[in-house]
Amino acid sequence: MEAAVRLVNASAALNRHFLTKTTANHFLRFPRNDAVVRVSGTCIRASSSVTANPINFLPFLPLSSNKLFNHSHSQPPANHFGPNDAGFAWHRPPSNVINGENASIFDHRETAVTVVLLGWLGARRKHLRRYVEWYNSRGINAITFVVEAKELLSFDLGRGVEKRIADLSNEIVSWVSHEEQDGKQRCLIFHTFSNTGWFVCGSILASLQGREDLMQKIKGLIVDSGGAGAFDPKVWAGGFGAAILKKRSSSAYSTVEDGKINGLEGQVSVSMMQDKEPDIIETMLLSLLEKLFSYIINLPDVNQRIKKVVSAVTNNPPACPHLYLYSTGDKVIPYQSVELLIEEQRKTGRKVFSVIFGPSAHVDHFRTFPSRYLSELHNFLKECFATVKKT
């Protein structure tokens, strides 16, 4: 009940704010060269400044961080998990892995690769740990970025999230724009979760429009449990509701005994999933959220901002292979909408792969089907770097 009461109060505040005239600002700007930001207490040099606008965080509402870098030849710090989930964090594989036999699996020993892991709403960095471990075991750097639900219900109305996304975009641009000290070229993979991660990715891509030199360095895009329902209030409500109630899917739950990744293989037990009827609190919460988002996403400024972000990731995405991971058991993102997007993307001639995981819940495909999930990732990355080798 406490969660529902907090949401009602937050919703009232949001409505009062949205009824006040606001001026829309450009979502992401390339910065002044002297701009400096702090992430988890560490100073880094950003490539742009940001002017926060309370309305700018809206595309992310529903969708259920030694030296980091200088602008020349710098390396991400050693593998670590910060004490909190503020900002973004670099996770670097051990040096003996970077040039080891696992790196040769994907033919990327001549390039330095970073995967950008963009979490679902309510995720914490620890929830992305096993993905980081798997990528690191292949000699791939990882950046993790997460958004907590409380950040969007705070007094600053998500302006901190907006700034963090801009900081992340600047960091990515700074890293990929340069070579490694040994002359290796740098490239990127995006791995997004839910519509939150998908929207963050769209915002970053929107900031790169017109920068073909940078867009060409994106070698793969993975969309896990996202990519649909950008203008559907039920999707927004389901994602936000799942984050508030700390569920992978609203109206569903799973019990999982986590395993450990040991070397190349993941040993994780299959989730025992059960459907149950939503309780009265969940029903009230979803109804309230759906009404709230029905209003919010139709505000002209918000609607245009969502269109811009979605267009960047659907109409003007990087010319690299795409992989969609989804399921019929996802109660947040309707699988039919994902399949429609996949078909639309294929009609444009883009190389699009897809995997459907049956009954697994929202952003729960890896825990439910670990062997298959990692196998599909492995095959996709081989395709991405085979494409790089041909070009």
From TrEMBL:
Pfam families: DUF829. This is Transmembrane protein 53.
